[in-house]
Amino acid sequence: MMHQNVSTPGLFALTMYSTCSTSLLSLPLILGSIVSQDAWMIPIVAGALGYLFVLMICKLGQLYPNKNLFEMTITAFGYWLGQVCNVLLVLLALATLLTVMNYSAGFISSHILITTPKEWILAISMTVVIYGVYLGSGPYSLFAILSTPFFFFPYVLLIVLKIPEADGSLLLPMLQQPVVEYMGAFLFYFAVTAINAIFLLTFFPQMTSDTKKAVTAIKSGYIFGNIILFIMIFLCTSVLGPYYMSTSYYPAFVLAQRIALGGFVERVEVLITVIWFITIYFKITVYLTAIIYGIARLANLETYKPLSLPIGMLVVMLTLLAFSNTAEDLFYYRYIVTTLSLIIGMIIPALWLTTIIKKKKHSTKGGIAK
User: Fold this and answer.
1) 3-state secondary structure the chain
2) What does the alpha-carbon distance between residue 305 and residue 136 come to, in Å, rounded to a whole number?
3) d(CA 98, CA 315)
4) Per-residue model confidence (pLDDT) at position 92
5) Contact criterion met (CB below 8 Å) for 87 and 298
C-alpha cells in the first residue's frame, strides 16, 4: 500500500494532539463527577502507567519496521486471526470517532454556530478532514507542526490569566471518595489517552525514517499531552471548584469565559475554541486514517485514497443516527467506548506480546536442539 513519510516533529504533534484533543473539554467534567476535587490527581497516576503502555506499543512497532498496524497483526497472528484483530481495531476506531464527532458538533452548535443545523456542521467539518486524509499523512503531519504555535500561544496565555485565581482550598479534603470511584476514573483516563497510542502504529514505524527519533517523539508527545490535560484539570478544579466543574458540560470553556480584565480583555473563551479546534482536527484525522487503512487492508486494496470520501460521509451519517441528545453521547463515551478501549486495546497487545514471547522461546529451544 502506498504511504508517505511522517517527520519526527510531525509524529510528536500528532501524538500530543490525539492525546489531549476532546479530553480538554470532557475530562474535567467526567473526572470531576467521579472523584470530585481529586480529579487533578488522576492524570498523574494514570498518565504514568499509560506511559508504560505507550512504551510497550513502541517496542511492538519496532519489531515490524516496514509494516503498519494492520499488517503487523497479520504477521503476528496469521492471516485469519490477524484479520479478526483488524476488524476489532477498525470497530474500536469507528466507535471512538463517532462520539468524538458528536461531541465536537455539539460544542460548535451550542457555542459558535448556534443556528446552523448539526448535519451541516458535521458534513463541513468532515469534508476538511477527508481532504487531509486524501492528501496523505505527510501533508497533514506537516500542518500539525505548523499549527503548534497557534496551539501553545493561547494555551499559555490562558494559564497565565487564570493561575492567579487558583484556590488551594477547593482541592480539599483529599482522598475522600470510595476506592472504586478512583479505579473508575483511572480506567477512564487510561482508556481515552494511553490506549489511543495503538493507532499511532498506523504511522509508526512504517512511515518514519528514523525509528529511534520516532519513539522519542511519541513518548514526548504523550508526556506533553498529559501535562496539558493535568494543567487544564487542575485549573478547572482550583478555579471553578468541584461543583461547577462537574455540572458544566464544557468546564474549560466556562473557565475561559470568566476572564475579564477591566473591560479591556474580554471574550477570552475564543482561546479555548482555537486550542480545541486544532487538537480535535488532528484526532479525527488520525482515527479516520486508521479506519481507512484498516478497511483497505481487510479488502486487500493497493491504495486507500478511493475510500476517503465514502467512509468519511458514512461516519457523518452514523454519527447522526447514533445519538439523539448529549446525555446519550456522554453515557456512550464514558461507558461503552471506555469498555471497548480497555477490552480491545488491552487484549490485542497482550496476545501480541504473548505470541512474540512464545516464538522467541520456540526459536531458542530449536537452536539448543540443533
Assistant:
1) CCCCCCCHHHHHHHHHHHHHCCHHHHHHHHHHHHHHHHHHHHHHHHHHHHHHHHHHHHHHHHCCCCCCHHHHHHHHHCHHHHHHHHHHHHHHHHHHHHHHHHHHHHHHHHHCCCCCCHHHHHHHHHHHHHHHHHHCHHHHHHHHHHHHHHHHHHHHHHHHHHHHHCCHHHHCCCCCCCHHHHHHHHHHHHHHHCHHHHHHHHCCCCCCCCHHHHHHHHHHHHHHHHHHHHHHHHHHHHHHHHHHHHHCCCHHHHHHHCCCECCCECCCCHHHHHHHHHHHHHHHHHHHHHHHHHHHHHCCCCCCHHHHHHHHHHHHHHHHHHCCCHHHHHHHHHHHHHHHHHHHHHHHHHHHHHHHHHHHHHHHHHHHHC
2) 9
3) 7
4) 93
5) yes
Domain boundaries, the chain: 8-354
Residues of the chain with pLDDT under 50: 368-370
Q: Quick check: bond before 205 cis, omega within 30?
A: yes
pLDDT given at position 269: 66
Q: Are 214 and 105 in contact (CB under 8 A)?
A: no
Q: Give the three cell numbers for residue 177.
A: 471518595
Give the cell for residue 351: 496476545
Residue (of 247, 248, 285, 348) closest to 6 by Cα position:
285
pTM of the model as a whole: 0.90
Task: Give residue for cell 511492538.
Answer: 60
Sequence letter at residue 23: S
| Cell triple for 158 | 490562558
Contact between 157 and 255 under an 8 Å Cβ cutoff? The reply is no
Q: What would the pLDDT profile of 294-334 be if each residue is shown by its tens digit?
A: 999 898 888 888 899 999 999 999 988 888 777 787 888 88
Grid coordinates representing 306? 478511493
Rg for the chain, CA atoms, rounded: 21
CATH of 8-354, picked from 1.20.1740.10, 3.40.50.620, 3.40.1550.10, 3.40.980.10, is 1.20.1740.10
Phi-psi category of 117—alpha, beta or left, where left has phi over 0 and alpha has psi -120 to 50? beta
